[in-house]
Structure formats: structure tokens, C-alpha cells
Design goal:
Elements (H helix, E strand, L loop, with lengths): L1 H21 L7 E5 L2 E5 L5 E5 L11 E8 L3 E8 L7 E6 L5 E5 L1 H6 L1 H4 L4 E2 L6
Antiparallel strand pairs: 1-2, 2-3, 4-5, 4-8, 5-6, 6-7
Length: 128
Amino acid sequence: MNGTKHIHVLAALSLSVFLTSCFPLGGEDRIKISDGYFLEKAESGKCYLRKARDKSLGGVFDGVVLEVGWSSEMVLGNVSRLYRGDPDGWYRLEIRSGKVTGPISKNSLQADSKLSKIRTRRVEDLKF
């Protein structure tokens, strides 16, 4: 009976490892930005800024985030837009209102006191 119990435990553990590898619990591919927003790394390795419960293809910026930084008020992202007719560049999300503006020129980034204080990093350098 003791051997049968061990086999059942081993089978249950094997099944749980298999299921979690097929259906990840989530969280390991996300970085919380603020309440309601997170940076998500897709299976392709590309990153998207997402709003909770939003399943849109390109996320909030409608594109792949290459660099990102944030404060309590806003998120700043260097974005490669999905639709190639839209200009790539720096985009800002105002967290409280959900308003996205951009592209923002480098001169405007440097001239804006709030934006110039946000430290951005390449998404490859972030820990997911």
C-alpha cells in the first residue's frame, strides 16, 4: 500500500508539472507599471504595454515597445507601431486619463520637465 501511495503522489506531481508547463499561471512574463497597466513579454520576445483585460494585438501603444520608462503619472515608450503607416517613435500614456500622445520628438522630450525626468531602459534589459 505504501508503494501505491508513492506512485499516486508521483503521478500527481508529474501531472501538475505538465499542466503548469502547458498552461502557465501568468505573472512571469509581466511587469506591473501601475494599477491597471503592465508590460507584457509575448512568446515571440516582443513587449507590449497592456491595460488590464485588454486583448488588443498591439496593446495601449498599438505597437512593440522597444524602450520604456514610467513615473506615477505617465509611461514613456519608444514604440515600433504595428501598422507601418503609423509613425514609430516616443509615445506617452497619461496613466490617470488613459490618453496616449505621440510621436514625441527628442527635442520635446528634453524640453518637457516631467518627461525628461523619466529614466527609460531597453526592454531587453528588464527582468521579467
